[in-house]
Amino acid sequence: MMNGGGAVGQQNGGIQHNGAADLVKARAQLLDGAGTRNPRLDPESLRGALVDLFELWLTSKGNELGITADSGLSVVAVGGLGRREMLPYSDLDLVLLHDDVDPKVVAEVADQLWYPLWDAHIKLDHSVRTVPQALRVAADDMIAVLGMLEARHIVGDEDLSNLLIGGVRREWRTGIRSRFDDLLAQTTARWQRSGEIAHRAEPDLKNGRGGLRDIQLLEALSIAQLTDSMPGLGPDVPGGGLRQAHRRILDVRTELHRVAGRARDQLRAQDADEIGAALRIGDRFDLARTLTDSARTVSYSCDVGLRTAANALPRRGLARLRRMPVRRPLDEGVVEHSGEVVLARDARPQRDPGLILRVAAASAQSGLPMSATTLNRLSEDAPELREPWPKDALNDLLVLLGAGRGSIDAVEALDRTGLWGRLFPEWGAVRDLPPRDAIHTWTVDRHLMETVAYASGLSTRVARPDLLALGALLHDIGKGRQGDHSVVGAELATHIGRRLGLWPSDVRTLSAIVRHHLLLPDTATRRDLDDPATVRHVVDALDGDVGLLELLHALAEADSMATGPGVWGDWKASLIGELVRRCRLVMAGEPLPEPEPIDPALLAAAADGGVHVTLTPGDGKHTFVVTVIAPDTPGLLSDAAGVLALHSLRVLSASLGSAGDSAINTFVVMPKFGDPPEAGLLRQELIRAIGGALVVSEVLAKREAEALGTGPGRYARAQPRVIWSPTSTPGQVILELRADDRVGMLSRLAGAFAATGANVRWAKVVTMGSAVVDAFCLELGDADSPALRERIESAVLQVVPQPAPPPPPTEAAAAG
């Protein structure tokens, strides 16, 4: 007997063998249980009791009709009864198997088995077949075979049932290679038709993405020996993992049947409070949060299962003769293998706490999923990041957040495996938290990541794209707690900013972003912009900080776009834009960039002439300072920056200056792989480049093509922006560039300046994650010439990444 069998025995003392009326009555007693004699069964016990009840009736009826061990007849259950997941009003899916039995006898037995169930208004999906007939149906019909994979013997000739069960599973395993594409197409079509359970107001618990059909899909892949039916998700997964998620969705669907009084798969809003109370979860919001957590766990597990299955498919023909997949390096300790991001063979997660963020950043940038095995290994072995975080860990976080929509899937994978919560313990309060008003499409945590993705497309509108990304990530972090979420969130942002290792001034700005993230939209849409007090209110709230105003303006747009359709439009954009314009008039202007002072020791070295290259440890564990002193000739900056890029040294910041006839350029770099090269090697390569023996631009182009592979990295997330500012020195002008980074960016920019005759007097170069904010003081023959500026700007824009072109119009749009 299954769990709950005792209840069946007590409440169904006898069932009439010649009908099913008592079966229906017994089911009603199970559903309506109340009081001490007939206690109300919890969902799991109720399902077990229903399985026992139907098995008892079918066994008794089968014995009455002569369906015995030596009869050549058997009854096999599929569907809910086959899975031992009988819901109150589930269809009864049965197959009557026969072997060398008179057709008249088979027909008579079938009628006597089916008609009582029909007469009792029990929904019945039935068939009468021989084993070969059933196997042919399974071979031709995907839905039928998925059902038969769950088949279970009920009564009669068990050997006959096992012939069917074993035959279906054997043919499924041997034929999965030719059927996998159809299985995937059918699954995708179902998801598109039924939507995501996690983000639907009235989800389809059975067919939606993350629902019970996906659990059955995983079981089918397991039977095909392509993956585990319950893949492990690591020790710290939220919600208890896949098995717990499966049970919770089953419990909700069980109570949905009980509340509705009939079979139903879609959870209606008006039933949610009653179901939440029956399951002792809480109100409809608590129920929605529980369902979202469970569905996202199932959805992630299904993605992993399908990916694992695809990689495990047996190869045939020429595919078997191909070489093993190449492991393409992506970052230190991170490679691509078989279309997934995995750890390099020499990676040591136990000694490398920043590896989690490097893996996630590589996944987000490349568009490749992280291997489940890799995530499990990181979950088990990677130590906690020390506080404050190392600079390279913060930089990897910024790369992750700046990757556009790729960051959403990467963070979702980290979160489902417990790694994101380890990095941000505060995330637990917003994880799966449902919105409280209808205009919000997403749960709070998904809304935060949607905002991050939209903010990455606005990064060139601000001077601090790093703070914009962090502000987008944390702006609603105060929700799910007591008090004003902006006030609570600002305090949390202060703690998080310190943990991340931000400068104290940046921590204050980040906290202010979270505290005032609603200031601009609320003021612009609710107050009179013509009233001077309105503008003064905003200026005073921001302490006259024009940089903070700029960040809040971009965040207001990203936040609105991430909320739902129609929340951001021309009306709202114009109101906020006008408010910001008026605030800027009142606030002081932004200070112009200035050159960094040059160390006297470097000035002394420059006075001696020649080419000097030094490499010393930087402030971070993986950062180094490269100083180049050389004759200040055209193309020197391009060659120096290019040599660094060719040796996989990523420029995080640079200060460029000169003294006499020598250039003094200092670069803060981080090796992408391993240790940096010796300073002597860099000097030799630089001398070769200056002399023309090494054409840096050509080698860079080849390296970049190899590094990009098949990922989306060739395109920018944000439109690049060039800002011109005058200086007090005649003939000089400042060009500020805000753009996405790329391999050898500084070298390419310097080459563009040299090609247009612009001389770089000094520069301040800063890389923030995957974005650059570079300021160049250019010496021009005619600094005020619009034509010259246009030529320089055009040359600059040709070497920086551009956003992807819009998709071609559909035929319908073209016809319109």
Search tags:
eight-stranded antiparallel beta sheet; four-stranded mixed beta sheet; 816 residues; alpha+beta; 15 strands; disordered N terminus; disordered C terminus; EC 2.7.7.59
What report would you give on this structure?
This protein has 816 residues and is an alpha+beta fold. It is built from 32 helices and 15 strands. The strands form three sheets. The chain has an eight-stranded antiparallel β-sheet with strand order 8-9-11-10-14-15-13-12. The chain is elongated. The two termini are 65 Å apart.
Structural class: alpha+beta
Helix content: 40-55%
Strand content: 5-15%
Rg, nearest Å: 33 Å
- On the 0 to 100 scale, the average pLDDT is 90
Low-confidence stretches: 1-17, 317-323, 810-816
Categorize the overall geometry. elongated
| Biggest sheet: strand arrangement | 8-9-11-10-14-15-13-12
What's the number of helices? 32
Distance between the termini: 65 Å
Summary, kept brief:
This is Bifunctional uridylyltransferase/uridylyl-removing enzyme. The chain has 816 residues and is α+β, with helices and mostly antiparallel strands.
